[in-house]
Amino acid sequence: MSTTLITGGTVVSATGRTQADVLVDGERIVALISPGASPFGTIDADLTIDATGKYVIPGGVDAHTHMQLPFGGTNASDTFETGTRAAAWGGTTTIIDFAVQRYGERVQDGLAHWHELAAGNCAIDYGFHQIIGGVDDDSLKAMDTLVDEGITSYKLFMAYPGVFYSDDAQVLRAMQKATDHGLLTMMHAENGPAIDVLAAQLAESGKTSPYYHGIARAWQLEEEATHRAIMLADVTGAPLYVVHVSAKQAVEQLAAARDKGRNVYGETCPQYLYLSLEDQLGASSEEWGDFEGAKWVCSTPLRSREEGHQDAMWQALRTNDLQMVSTDHCPFCMKEQKELGKDDFRAIPNGIGSIEHRVDLLYQGVVTGQITLERWVELIATTPARMFGLYGRKGVIAPGADADIVVYDPAGHTSIGLGEGRTHHMNMDHSAWEGYEIDGHVDVVLARGSVVVVDGEFRGAKGHGSYLKRGLSQYLI
Ligand code: DUC
Ligand code: ZN
Ligand code: ZN
Q1: Cis peptide leading into 300, omega within 30 of 0?
Q2: Which residue has its alpha carbon closest to ligand 1 atom 1?
Q3: Cβ atoms 191, 214 nearer than 8 A
Q4: Which residue of 213, 330, 352, 428 sits with most ligand 1 atoms within 8 Å of its CB, as the best mutation to test the pocket?
Q5: Do domains 3-57+393-458 and 59-387 have the same CATH topology?
Q6: pLDDT tens figures, 230-262
Q7: CATH 3.20.20.140 is right for the domain spanning 59-387
């Protein structure tokens, strides 16, 4: 087995920072050594990485991705190969993707299909949540076996009637089943039927541009669904994790529930920290006109900056009213995909690609004083690992953990986008983050002991990533 020594860096964890050299043997971290105090004498490692002046952090864990998701008559444009490669470039070494079951399909078939898509194709380790898009006796029975498959969380949708939607009775039944097994319920909390009425009315009155996607998906309908999900979880005893929170009023619902001692959690995504409905309204290009805003059509939608949603998300990350940042990575190209909705925003496939930039975009929050260095590590790696049953192996730099390590240079710089000298490796014909500048840089990435990225070059391999059977969430009570 080969050894790697990362010297001179500052190891940052969720709880502090320390000067330490990190010794890796094969796929695992074996020691953290105070500089100049090695009890083993001089360590003659096969590879030495100089991290002087840099941060040494656990590899990012992105707990919300959708490679190849079938959506809106097309599929998300990143495969497990292209998406996990882009993730590695950006310092993410683990993803948890969503296996899909739709109404009338068998959960086991959906899961088997997702294994087929991912196996042998990933550059980094991966796990699955299970989407239950059709709650019925059959899918409820299938939930009995999820934990044995290493799937300890599943997602329901209160949005998308006719596609993934569950009504309240279905949500309740699934949550009861989740309580029996210790599964964590992940909720897409938007009132889908109400949204569909508003969206139809807007379209019928000629309001068809991408901006109206966000108008139809009003914050009230996120707040209302979040509250309903919290109450349904309460009545069933199910722990709840609300995905892609974007409305400040939804955060207020989570905070109020947590203050009452309810076991509820929430994530937000980079798009809800940085991008706004006003940006979308103002977007225009020679090629696409005001359809340019389609590149930011995602659900939940971008929210108004004037109304203060973005500030509220940063605040909630500081106060722990929100616990994590995932991407909801669901990329679609403008050509042939987003343009399906050129005449009607309802037909624009929903999603933004961010898997490559989450670590950087959150680090920019450290630079601007929104979060601390330790909170950065907690949000991008440690809490996702704890929330989704991976902690110990992932999310921490400690002896025995997988050697998923990022050397991050705070004096470096990253220019995001498709232009010359910019960073973009996701399989998209545009970047939702074009022109973003980051005061920091992912220098070196190790995935289970192998150097997968160095000097802006990908050195990893398709198939290096293994399937992670996950344990139960540490947040169950
Ligand atoms: N939201 C998105 O933006 N894309 C896929 C599904 C979802 O809920
Ligand atoms: Zn969702
Ligand atoms: Zn999602």
Answers
A1: yes
A2: 299
A3: no
A4: 330
A5: no
A6: 999 999 999 999 999 999 999 999 999 999 999
A7: yes
